[in-house]
């Protein structure tokens, strides 16, 4: 019963945040859509901001799973690393992710580098950099520093896309430049003619 109530509220919150945004979504809408009381919302999430944090965590976990799937299909560790990082930036074109993760999330919850999931992302990127360095694919770089810089670049690029007047055009510019940025790590940099 508890898990079902929580799931109903998460679904209602996600739908409202994704369609009308955090500012326009009301607690009464969440509870009415879920067929529950405000008390249930307060009990499970504390308030509207707590519900947003839970929705962000849920979407973040889904994004992470999608990115792992993207990298696992790549023909090489390096290509998987690039595809995964670029995939994150490109997710900013998806309306629900765009609004919740890259517009309202930072506006309400603060800098994404301080979110609970940020350390996990940095740790994963750092491990990838260690592995790529050990196999001789990339230059000798401090994995944690590199991971933090890559994480910051991808996060800011995604926010730029999400808040752009022309997200498609901005995404193309951001992805092309981000790829060039990542290629700078390679031991044998590709000839860009």
Helical residue percent band: over 70%
Question: How many distinct folded domains?
Answer: 2
Proportion of residues in extended strands? under 5%
Distance between the termini: 62 Å
CATH topology of the largest domain: Tetracycline Repressor, domain 2
CATH superfamily of the largest domain: Tetracycline Repressor, domain 2
Output mean pLDDT.
Answer: 93
Taking Cα atoms only, what radius of gyration do you get, to the nearest Å? 19 Å
Describe the global form: elongated
| Residue windows where pLDDT falls under 50 for at least 5 positions | none
- Count of DSSP helices? 9
Number of strands: 0
Quaternary structure classification: single chain
The major beta sheet can be summarized as: none
Structural class based on helices, strands and sheet pairing: mainly alpha
**CATH architecture descriptor of the largest domain:** Orthogonal Bundle
Domain HTH tetR-type: 3-63
DNA-binding region: 26-45
InterPro entries: Homeodomain-like_sf (IPR009057), HTH-type_TetR-like_transc_reg (IPR050109), HTH_TetR (IPR001647), Rv0078-like_C (IPR049484)
Protein name: TetR family transcriptional regulator
Please characterize this protein's 3D structure.
- There is one protein chain.
- By secondary structure, the protein is mostly helical.
- It has helices spanning 2-19, 27-34, 38-45, 48-72, 77-90, 95-109, 118-134, 143-162, 167-183.
- The chain has 2 domains: 1-46, Arc Repressor Mutant, subunit A; 57-184, Tetracycline Repressor, domain 2 (Orthogonal Bundle), CATH 1.10.357.
- Helices cover 74% and strands 0% of the residues.
- The model has no long low-confidence stretch (mean pLDDT 93).
- Residues 3-63 form the HTH tetR-type domain.
- It holds the Pfam family TetR_N.
- Keywords: DNA-binding.
- Residues 26-45 bind DNA.
């Amino acid at each position: 019963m508890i898990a079902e109530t929580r799931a109903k509220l998460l679904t209602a919150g996600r739908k409202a945040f994704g369609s009308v945004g955090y500012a326009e979504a009301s607690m009464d809408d969440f509870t009415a859509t879920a067929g529950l009381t405000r008390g249930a919302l307060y009990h499970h999430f504390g308030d509207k901001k707590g519900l947003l944090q839970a929705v962000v965590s849920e979407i973040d976990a889904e994004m992470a799973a999608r990115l792992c799937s993207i990298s696992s299909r790549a023909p090489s560790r390096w290509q998987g690393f690039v595809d995964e990082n670029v995939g994150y930036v490109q997710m900013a074109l998806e309306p629900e992710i765009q609004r919740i993760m890259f517009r309202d999330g930072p506006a309400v919850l603060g800098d994404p580098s301080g979110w609970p999931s940020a350390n996990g992302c940095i740790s994963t990127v750092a491990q990838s950099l260690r592995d790529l360095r050990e196999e001789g694919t990339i230059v000798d770089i401090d994995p944690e520093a590199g991971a933090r810089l890559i994480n910051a670049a991808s996060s800011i690029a995604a926010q730029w896309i999400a808040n752009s007047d022309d997200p498609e055009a901005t995404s193309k510019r951001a992805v092309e430049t981000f790829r060039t940025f990542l290629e700078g790590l390679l031991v044998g940099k590709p000839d860009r003619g």
